[in-house]
């Protein structure tokens, strides 16, 4: 069964399907992407296993980000549209004492699709989806101190620094989503179309 797809102005968020795995695996050979996402290189077989575990874990939600400019023909829900996949966005409810808190991660892996506002749109859409469907009240992001692009992205979305780890050289930022902020998020994503 295919999950929902969310169509925004610039991106379409589609469920992570097995057809996406080879390209995802290819991206994750890049030392820059491994470092900025704090990931370890995996074999293709391990990446398929990781895909399964992400899809089955009720505490995680992952979407593949499609760049609408790259979709060939019309978008078809359920079609992986590998030609247009440029990154991923995910949330992880990894604080078992607070399941209303989700860590959010974004990657726009294809350089040609960066700087077009895709990450901003994808994170906003993911947050609105998480507020509505998972009852999330606080979003958290952990970013390497040298990752200026990502730090600015989250700061621009209203996240504030709450702590710094000297050991991991990493900043933790949070965005509480209560009342006014929740309304603002829902207004910003009001035109998002849900498929089906
Ligand atoms: C960080 C990243 C997600 C940004 O994606 P993007 O689609 O290019 O970002 P957007 O075009 O949506 O930019 C949104 C805002 O982010 C900031 N930003 C993005 N790229 C930037 C850069 N290279 N330098 C400075 N600020 C940048 C800006 O504030 C920008 O807003 P503005 O254009 O109005 O000034 C992308 O570069 C990436 O995937 N990097 C590698 C993986 C990574 O670092 N992931 C984050 C770990 S959670």
UniProtKB/TrEMBL annotation:
<keyword id="KW-0012">Acyltransferase</keyword>
<keyword id="KW-0808">Transferase</keyword>
<dbReference type="InterPro" id="IPR000182">
    <property type="entry name" value="GNAT_dom"/>
</dbReference>
<dbReference type="InterPro" id="IPR016181">
    <property type="entry name" value="Acyl_CoA_acyltransferase"/>
</dbReference>
<dbReference type="GO" id="GO:0008080">
    <property type="term" value="F:N-acetyltransferase activity"/>
</dbReference>
<protein>
    <recommendedName>
        <fullName>N-acetyltransferase domain-containing protein</fullName>
    </recommendedName>
</protein>
<comment type="similarity">
    <text>Belongs to the acetyltransferase family. GNAT subfamily.</text>
</comment>
<feature type="domain" description="N-acetyltransferase">
    <location>
        <begin position="11"/>
        <end position="178"/>
    </location>
</feature>
<dbReference type="InterPro" id="IPR039135">
    <property type="entry name" value="NAT9-like"/>
</dbReference>
<dbReference type="Pfam" id="PF13302">
    <property type="entry name" value="Acetyltransf_3"/>
</dbReference>
């Amino acid at each position: 069964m295919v999950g929902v797809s969310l169509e925004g102005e610039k991106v379409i968020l589609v469920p992570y399907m097995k057809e996406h795995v080879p390209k995802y695996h290819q991206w994750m050979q890049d030392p820059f992407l491994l470092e900025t996402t704090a990931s370890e290189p995996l074999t293709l077989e391990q990446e398929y296993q990781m895909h399964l575990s992400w899809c089955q874990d009720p505490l995680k939600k992952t979407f593949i980000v499609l760049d609408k400019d790259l979709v060939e023909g019309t978008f078809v829900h359920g079609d992986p549209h590998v030609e247009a996949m440029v990154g991923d966005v995910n949330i992880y409810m990894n604080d078992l004492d607070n399941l209303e808190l989700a860590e959010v991660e974004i990657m726009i892996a294809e350089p040609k699709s960066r700087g077009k506002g895709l990450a901003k749109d994808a994170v906003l859409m993911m947050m609105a989806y998480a507020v509505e469907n998972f009852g999330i009240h606080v979003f958290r992001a952990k970013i390497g101190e040298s990752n200026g692009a990502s730090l600015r992205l989250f700061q621009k979305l209203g996240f504030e620094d709450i702590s710094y780890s000297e050991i991991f050289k990493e900043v933790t930022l949070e965005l509480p989503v209560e009342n006014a902020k929740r309304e603002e998020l829902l207004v910003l994503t009001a035109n998002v179309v849900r498929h089906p």
